[in-house]
Design brief:
The complex is a heterodimer of chains A (about 500) and B (about 300). With about 500 residues, chain A is of the alpha/beta class. Chain A has eleven helices and 16 strands. Classes of the chains: A alpha/beta (about 500), B alpha/beta (about 300). The structure holds fe (ii) ion (FE2).
């Protein structure tokens, strides 16, 4: 059972852009939009801190991906419904939660990674939902992908891992599964005004499913999902409901509220709220796919280096504490953190267009070694122009100039951030800083103040040195070591 | 105006790994090496096409622009932007800048619509071009000095069956060939499909670590070899016959219809195709195959 103080509600939302971009094209799209907006009001009233989204519109192949870029920004155009126009967006993502979710998923035997790249394509369903339920970005969000190969057992474990992370951080979280119900499009062009569910059979199945959800029988729906998917071409096997049910505690004890059910280009689009509550139904059916730890290898024909006789897709295992290592039946090749099986190192170069100044010698911006990221010295020079905020310390003839060391410090730390983020790390994961000043007496105090603004809360170790000169006319340079990838500073 | 011609028809798979390993200036990540057999295969393909002249246009059918409401065509003459692969963002973050032959795209669109297919021109200038298109075009013509026509992969197989999907794609290919002939242009057609498509579900920490790369399993390899042998023997009709089975058995990307589109456009070649390379990428089978209609 979900802890209602941590998970006040869960939602099912559809994934098409019509309610956002074309609400006037069909009364059903307007009704869906109104339902999204009502969901937004209810979430704000619930005191939630985080919107946690699983979207069938974001398929993944290599394990489970979790969005960790703090401020993704883009002008989105849907691949199918491009004629409906652009969706410009800026979202606030909860990177701390993303990393916690990644750790929780790994602890339960799943292959998971965070992604943090400018321009990463966030799917239309997620964009539409966040624009309509969280228009002012009042809440942070986190999005997890829908693995193409993950079947029910694995997806249940992914849902349980989300609950582990919610409990570990104590985040008041609203989980949202973004999915169509029946997912058959019209096979002939149909004007939006004449939209309908593609077939009577699909419509009947949708209504049956929504009857269950309206009674709060989320776990029953999770167990029925496969049959529904077969009969009504359910969106991605209805995995989003597997995930949601596992996250919310695998019971039928909810109050269900179907806020809207309408067709969008033949598919079944529903907005449903589930609130943890008293028992509303009889006991649930015994569920043989319900496992705590993902124990298997989807590569059932993995070949020479697989376990003897292959391995089951899901190995039942006793419950494991979230942070303890997974327990049984795991194929070493699939589940061993691959980074541990060989030391590795990689030079990282960051393009000027991404805001990093070009190196002045034969060195990369950073080098990754295992989970550690070593940055080359970073000064305040601006990418592309080499301009120095706060002014250079000397002119072309070597004559000393007056300069603003606070501005130089700020610019240098902004460059540090750029390189860290381009290399998959962040300021929050910096563990050690060496600062070089060309004039300790003149500059220490201003430098120290700006430094505290940026690193005061992060608390890496620090060493400050006075040196005679730096290779370009700058007053300050930083040498930084950080953790990267999935490793976290705390 | 003399009649247009298909200068070459190419099975041109689009693993972003190949672009990553090539280290073009447009791509952000840096690789040490990797997938040389396939990359050198693309080099052989480029030489082979160049020996017959410079095409006026590349026409690409891409499985990573998926549409359910029929076949869509890029209909804006210039696109520039950043393409980030949603599956391998660690490998592919590519700054593209490309020209579209909108006139030919419209002509193919009109031919396909006249043949009874559902079609749509994509006229939104903010649209992001899919990474499959970008990868295939880059590997075939890294100079980016030739306009492209880009056709989405309509998912008729998803709404009906593999057989119906193939039949639609063959009709689309035939419409493409008619439009090319009427255009007076020399076109290279790129069917951007991988072959067997079961992926590994983990990635080595160093993606280009070739000691971790191999075909997913022998069964997939056998199916791929069967298909390639038919190509080498010029037995296109047989390929179309076994394609639904092949697709099912190897979960092949041919499901998305690029190969059947190409065979339809080439009017089911009876002359041998040249296989420039075959190799695996995270376990999937990929072949670079060229049909030269002048041999026909
Ligand atoms: Fe692909």
């Amino acid at each position: 059972m979900a802890d209602p103080t941590l998970i006040p509600n869960g939602y099912v939302l559809p994934g098409q852009p019509h309610p956002l971009l074309a609400p006037d094209a069909n009364p059903g799209y307007a009704a869906l939009r109104a339902a999204y907006e009502e969901v937004g009001r209810r979430i704000r009233a619930s005191g939630a801190e985080l919107l946690l989204i699983y979207s069938t519109g974001w398929p993944s192949v290599i394990g489970h991906q979790i969005q960790a870029l703090e401020r993704p920004e883009w002008v989105h155009v849907d691949q199918e419904w491009h004629e409906l126009g652009e969706i410009p967006y800026t979202f606030r993502m909860d990177a701390e939660f993303a990393h916690a979710y990644r750790r929780a998923a790994t602890s339960r035997g799943l292959h998971a990674r965070t992604v943090s790249y400018h321009g990463f394509p966030i799917d239309t369903g997620t964009v539409t939902a966040l624009k309509l339920i969280n228009p002012d970005n009042a809440l942070k969000a986190c999005v997890v992908s829908c693995n193409m190969y993950a079947d029910r057992g694995e997806t249940l474990v992914l849902g349980k891992a989300a609950r582990d992370a919610i409990e570990a951080l104590g985040r008041r979280t609203v989980p949202i599964g973004i999915t169509a119900l029946s997912n058959r499009y019209h096979t002939e062009p149909v004007p939006f005004a004449d939209d309908r569910i593609q077939s009577q059979k699909d419509d009947d199945w949708n209504r049956k499913l929504l009857e269950f959800l309206g009674e709060g029988r989320l776990e029953d729906v999770s167990q029925l999902a496969r049959e529904f998917a077969l009969q009504a071409n359910g969106d991605s096997k209805l995995k989003a409901l597997w995930w949601l049910a596992a996250l919310m505690g695998q019971t039928n004890n909810y109050r269900g509220d179907v806020l809207a059910y309408r067709p969008v280009y033949g598919t079944g689009a529903a907005v449903v709220e589930l609130t943890p509550g008293a028992s509303s139904a009889l006991d649930k059916e015994f569920d043989e796919e319900d496992v705590e730890v993902y124990g298997g290898d989807r590569n059932v024909l993995t070949g020479h280096d697989g376990p003897p006789g292959g391995s089951a897709s899901v190995a039942p295992a006793p419950p494991a504490a979230p942070q303890s290592p997974p327990l049984t039946g795991r194929a070493p090749r699939e589940t061993r953190p691959i980074r541990r099986d060989a030391p590795f190192t990689e030079a990282i170069r960051v393009a000027a267009r991404d805001g990093a100044p070009a190196p002045v010698g034969a060195y990369p911006h950073a080098r990754r070694v295992g989970d550690f990221l070593y940055l080359s010295g970073v000064g305040p020079r601006q990418a592309g122009t080499d301009a120095i905020p706060g002014g250079p310390v000397r002119d072309a003839d070597g004559e000393a100039l007056n300069y603003d060391v606070a501005a130089q410090t700020r610019a240098a730390l902004a460059n540090v951030r750029t390189v860290l983020e381009a290399a998959g790390s962040s300021m929050e994961r910096v563990i050690d800083v060496t600062s070089f000043l060309i004039d300790m007496d003149r500059d220490f105090s201003a430098y120290n103040q700006v430094y505290a603004e940026v690193f005061g809360a992060i608390q890496p170790t620090r060493t400050t040195l006075a040196i005679q000169a730096l290779p370009t006319p700058i007053a300050i340079e930083f040498k930084v070591v950080a953790l990267t990838g999935d490793a976290a500073a705390s | 105006m003399s009649a247009g011609a298909i200068l070459a028809g190419v099975l041109a798979p689009h693993p972003p790994h190949l672009v990553y390993a090539d280290n073009p200036p447009q791509n952000e990540p840096y690789a040490e090496c990797g997938w040389e057999e396939l990359r050198w295969g693309y080099e052989r393909l480029r030489k082979s096409i160049a020996s017959r002249g410079v095409p006026d246009v590349l026409i690409v059918h891409s499985p990573h622009w998926r549409t359910n409401s029929g076949h869509h065509f890029l209909g804006v003459d210039h696109f520039a932007g950043l393409s980030v692969d949603p599956v391998f963002p660690n490998l592919f973050r590519f700054h593209y800048d490309l020209e579209v032959d909108v006139e030919l795209a419209q002509a193919i669109h009109d031919e396909a619509a006249a043949a009874g297919l559902q079609t749509k021109m994509m006229t939104n200038p903010s649209f992001r071009v899919d990474y499959g298109t970008i990868t295939a075009c880059h590997l075939v013509r890294p100079e980016w000095d030739i306009p492209i026509v880009c056709i989405s992969a309509s998912r008729a197989y998803y709404l009906f069956s593999n057989e119906v999907g193939d039949a639609q794609m063959i009709a689309l290919g035939q419409a493409t060939a008619r439009a090319v002939a009427d255009s007076g242009k020399n076109a290279v057609l790129l069917a951007s499909n991988s072959l067997s498509h079961r992926h590994f579900t983990v990635e080595p920490s160093l993606p280009e670590d070739m000691s971790k790369e191999h075909v997913y399993h022998h069964g997939q390899y056998l199916w791929d070899m069967r298909l390639l042998e038919l190509m080498r023997q010029g037995k296109s009709r047989e390929i179309v016959d076994i394609l639904p089975d092949y697709t099912e058995q190897t979960v092949s990307e041919t499901k998305e219809g690029s190969l059947s589109w190409l065979l339809g456009a080439l009017d089911f070649p009876t002359y041998p195709a040249e296989v420039h390379a075959y190799g695996s990428v995270i376990g999937t089978g990929n072949a670079i195959v060229e049909w030269n209609p002048q041999h026909g």
